[in-house]
Amino acid sequence: MESWVAAFHFIQLLRLRHQHTQQTRGETVGNRIDPDQLNALDRRILKEAFRQGRKLQGVMERYFEF
After folding, report:
1. What is the C-alpha to C-alpha distance for residues 24 and 8, in angstroms, rounded to an integer?
2. Angle at 57 between CA 51 and CA 62, to 5 degrees
3. Contact in structure between 4 and 56 (CB atoms under 8 Å)
4. Cβ distance 2 to 50 under 8 Å?
5. Burial of 36 by CB count in 10 Å (0-12 exposed, 13-18 middle, 19+ buried)?
6. Can you list the alpha helix ranges (DSSP code H) found in the chain?
7. What is the pLDDT of residues 6-39, one digit of tens each?
8. What is the distance between the alpha carbons of residues 35 and 46, in angstroms, rounded to a whole number?
């Protein structure tokens, strides 16, 4: 469960950091982040965060199965 929370926090950190940069530049603020614009470490951590998200989806599918 800790890894799911950490993944969520990392994704939110990326999103807020990106929005701050956009706002500073006077651009329209949005949520879309081009992964190619991330450094190698952030891209790697983002991939792991998405893996954790997939795991959580699997757990939720089993939990809410009819």
Report:
1. 24
2. 135
3. yes
4. no
5. exposed
6. 2-24, 40-63
7. 999 999 999 999 999 999 999 999 999 999 999 9
8. 9
Residue 55 has pLDDT above 80, yes or no: yes
Q: State the residue for tokens 């891209």.
A: 43
Task: Grade residue 65 by pLDDT with cuts at 50, 70 and 90.
Answer: confident
Kindly calculate the radius of gyration of the chain based on its CA atoms and give it in whole angstroms.
15
Q: Report the percentage of the chain scoring pLDDT > 90.
A: 95
- Is the pTM here over 0.85, yes or no? no
**Residue that the structure tokens 């701050």 belong to:** 20
Could you tell me the two tokens for 49?
Answer: 């965060």
